[in-house]
Design goal:
With 181 residues, the protein is an alpha/beta fold. 24% of the residues lie in helices and 24% in strands.
C-alpha cells in the first residue's frame, strides 16, 4: 500500500499479514475522501480504529499538523510505529493503545481534531457505540468532520451527529457527519 499524495507520495506503508488484523482503506477510497475534503494543511486528525494508520498517515503527508491514532492490536501498532518512523512523521503523531469504544475515555488530546476518521471492523457492532462515545466525550467539536467507513449493514446514527454526505465505492460506504445543531 502506498501514500497517494503529499510529501510522502508514492512511499510504501506496511500492514500486518492477514485480513483478520486490519483492513486498510483502499487507495481509491482514500483518494475519494481526501479529494472531497480538499486542503487538510494544518489540521489536527483523530484516526480511531487506526490499524496501520493509512488515513492518518495520508493526512500527515498532505500537511496535517498532528495526528492522534487509536488502536489496540499489537501487530497493527508495531506497523503504525514503523510507518511513522519510515515516513518521518513520528514527531507529529501520538498513538493511544486503547480498546474501543470505551477506551476513548482514557485519551487526552492536546488539540481538538478537525478531522475524525472512524473505520471500525465491519459488522462487529462497534460503529455507533464508538461514535456515541466521541460525542459524549466532546471529542467532536462544532466545526469537526467525522468520516466513517462502513458497509450497508451498518448505518452511522447517533444522537448529536448528522449526516451531510454519503458515497459508495463497491461494498464500502463513506459517510460524512458533523455535530447536530
Amino acid at each position: 500500500m502506498k501514500i497517494i499524495a503529499g510529501t510522502a507520495k508514492g512511499r510504501t506503508i506496511i500492514a500486518p499479514k492477514g485480513q483478520d488484523i486490519t483492513r486498510p482503506a483502499l487507495a481509491k477510497v482514500r483518494e475519494a475522501i481526501f479529494s472531497s475534503l480538499g486542503d487538510v494543511e494544518g489540521c489536527v486528525v483523530l484516526d480511531v480504529f487506526a490499524g496501520t494508520g493509512s488515513l492518518g498517515l495520508e493526512a500527515l503527508s498532505r500537511g496535517a499538523q498532528l495526528a492522534y491514532f487509536v488502536e489496540n492490536h499489537p501487530q497493527a501498532i508495531r506497523c503504525l510505529i514503523q510507518n511513522l518512523k519510515t515516513l518521518g512523521f513520528s514527531d507529529r503523531a501520538k498513538i493511544f493503545d486503547r480498546k474501543l469504544p470505551f477506551g476513548l475515555k482514557r485519551i487526552k488530546l492536546d488539540s481538538p481534531p478537525q478531522l475524525i476518521f472512524c473505520d471500525p471492523p465491519y459488522d462487529c457492532d462497534l460503529l455507533n457505540p464508538t461514535l456515541q462515545q466521541l460525542v459524549d466525550l466532546n471529542l467532536v467539536h462544532p466545526d469537526a468532520i467525522v468520516i466513517v467507513e462502513h458497509t450497508a449493514r451498518e448505518c452511522p446514527q447517533v444522537k448529536g451527529l448528522q449526516e451531510f454526505k454519503k458515497r459508495q465505492y463497491g461494498q464500502t460506504f463513506i459517510t460524512y457527519l458533523k455535530r447536530a445543531p
